[in-house]
Amino acid sequence: MKIKYAVMALVGAAALTSCNLDEKFYSSATPETFITSKESTYAILARPFTHWKWYLGSERWMLQELTTDEMVCPARGKDFYNGGEYVRLHEFTWTPTDRWIKGTYEGTTEAIARTLEAKADLEAVDYTKIGMTEADKADNINQLNALLAWFYMRGLDYFGGMPIYHSNNDAVAGRSTAKETYDYIESLLKTAIPNLKQKTQLGASEEGYIKQGAAAAMLAELYFNAKSYIGEEHFDECAQICQDIIDGKYGAYKLDNTWYGPFCFDNDKSPEAMWNVPSQNAKLEYNWYYRYFYHSNADKYFNISFPASTWNGFGLAPSKESATSGVYTDFKLGNPYAKFNDKDLRKKPYVYEGNGKYQGMFLVGKQVNPYTGEKDLGTKVQAGKVIDLVDYVNAGNKGSNYINADENSCIRLVKLPIPNKDDQTMLWNPDWPAMRLTEVYYMLAECKWRKGDGAGAAKLINQVRKRNFENGNDPDPVPDNFDVYRLADEWMIEFLGEGRRRTDLIRLGLWTTENWWVHTAINDDTKKLFPIPSQDIQANPLLKQNPGY
Fold first, then answer.
1. Distance, first Cα to last Cα, the chain
2. How far apart are CA 485 and CA 498, in angstroms?
3. Are 164 and 173 in contact (CB under 8 A)?
4. Is residue 161 a contact partner of residue 176, using CB atoms and an 8 Å limit?
5. Distances (CA, A) of 428 to 50, 61, 258
6. Beta strand pairing status for 412-413 and 28-29?
7. Is residue 14's pLDDT more than 70?
8. Residues with Cβ < 8 Å from 235, sequence gap 6 or more?
9. What is the number of alpha carbons within 13 Å of residue 516 lying toward its C-beta?
10. What are phi and psi of 448, to 5 degrees?
């Protein structure tokens, strides 16, 4: 472990003349001097996972969501224009100097370095000397192998081929090909899966620990998107792994009976949880997520004091052009709020009912708390007026576009619930569902659909859909003969705001060929990848830029 630190001793000579200090000082810590117990082993193992918790935050989410048909961040007067950076995301005109791209690339490479460092440290430890077993060691090392694969897969998804490192002592490298990166990811996961522990009990807490099922789902995800990544179809391999996960080969998992189970305050115990990012009130884990979505006075509607300011940025892409227009019919993609059936339990306005119970998933309409009567009042264009969240962007009827929003524009998503002040300690307690069994069902469904088994695909999706309706009565189940647009819609409404939409649209062949709200198809496949940041190429000239930039 290459941890160097300065040791500062503040010694008052007069006070210490009678003291006998027999201490040993180190200029560096090594596995032999630091990893001397189970606790210190876990501290090393947790280090890259701490980075992983941060990594799933804003920058990566923005590239996956604000570039698509489901989420937007329009300019609200002078707010959120930011030199046009959000407009560039939506219009596919981003540049190698844009900060979200830079942050994502550097966050990915830093994550890889941290994981390799932790892996090297633990590989040097004799587990038997600290009361652990070789099986414990294999599990720890292979959690890191799986995590390393996951970070490399994110890099492959965003940027294509990545520099491949096996150790932090490797010489600085240029980019490997996409196929070489893909093969490295596959080898890491195939090595990891047999050596990881299985989840043996439904409802057992899932907080960060990579179990066998999670790693298997990662491998399925790699195969699922192989056509996008390397031009090879591996849907059969994906389908087999997904079926094995559903059948229990990789551990005990089951679809949650409720729509809110995977997202609620104790969602780590959902039977479909496969890999959750731990969160708790004291650590403000998903502060970024809440801050961007909600109006500055939204605390009045929620009846709770936020420890940080909210910024009123992100919202659902609009389904309507104006207050009087109907649902957009020009676009087969997008219209996210309108795509939810009116009987869908999730479509109700979000209301916290107390004791961890709530209904609905959206902030929509006038923002007046139904229990307290407190009002969320505007502060700028809507100053003194009750915020009235609408499904369009068209301030003052000046046109539906990315630079003409106000405080009322866009319905807001409440994917992870927010309590009231009586339950303040539960704020930010929901974990972020990085991977859940529903994804496995949907991957298997799409694999079946691609093989012409529409009935088998529809059955799997409808198994999930029915929990979204009273008594399981779905008024609009997926038919056996559904097309790619219905498939895209099903991915959208189930995983809305979970940071995957761009990847899904690319895989479905809709990313560069379709129009959606104020986005015109560019038919330029170079935009399936983001550019390598200019600053990173300057720092490492071995890096080559992606085509089109």
1. 38
2. 19
3. yes
4. yes
5. 17, 18, 20
6. unpaired
7. no
8. 223, 224, 227, 446, 447, 450, 451
9. 27
10. -65, -45
Taking the C-alpha atoms of residue 472 and residue 253, their distance in angstroms, rounded to an integer, is: 21
Secondary structure (H, E, C), 366-419: ECECCCCCCECEECCCCECCECEEECECCHHHCCCCCCCECCCECCEECCCCCC
The fold of the 197-278+431-496 domain, in CATH, is 1.25.40
Identity of residue 209: Y
Mean pLDDT, residues 491-498: 97
Domain boundaries, the chain: 38-196, 197-278+431-496, 286-421
pLDDT at 429 over 80: yes
Whole-angstrom distance, CA of residue 69 vs CA of residue 263: 23
CA-atom Rg of the chain in angstroms: 25
Structure tokens at 254: 């089951």
CATH 1.25.40.390 assigned to 38-196:
yes
> Which of 12-26, 138-152, 208-222 has the weakest average pLDDT?
12-26
DSSP 178: H
Cβ neighbours for 76, distance < 8 A, ≥ 6 positions apart: 312, 313, 380, 381, 405, 406, 407, 409
Mean pLDDT of 62-69: 97
What distance in Å separates the CA atoms of residue 531 and residue 538, rounded to the nearest whole number? 13
pLDDT at 1 over 50: no
Band of pLDDT at residue 30, cut at 50, 70 and 90: low
Cα Dmax for the chain: 88
Quickly tell me which residue has 């939506």 as its tokens.
90
549 contacts 533 by C-beta, under 8 angstroms = no
76: three-class secondary structure by DSSP: strand
Asked whether the domain spanning 197-278+431-496 has the same topology as the one spanning 38-196, the reply is yes
Tell me the DSSP string of 296-317.
TTHHHHHTS--SS------EEP
Dihedral, 516, 518, 521, 527 alpha carbons, nearest 10: -100
Closest by CA position to 237, among listed 251, 219, 252: 219
What pLDDT, in 10s, does the model give residues 273-308?
A: 999 988 877 665 666 777 899 999 999 999 999 888
Alpha carbon of 197 to those of 140, 203, 340: distances in Å?
Answer: 10, 16, 38
User: Do residues 428 and 280 touch, judged by C-beta distance below 8 A?
Assistant: yes
| CA 471 – CA 480 distance, rounded (Å) | 22
> pLDDT tier at 448 (50, 70, 90 boundaries)?
very high
Pairing between β-strand 357-359 and β-strand 28-29 as defined by DSSP bridges: unpaired
What tokens were used for 309? 């300011």
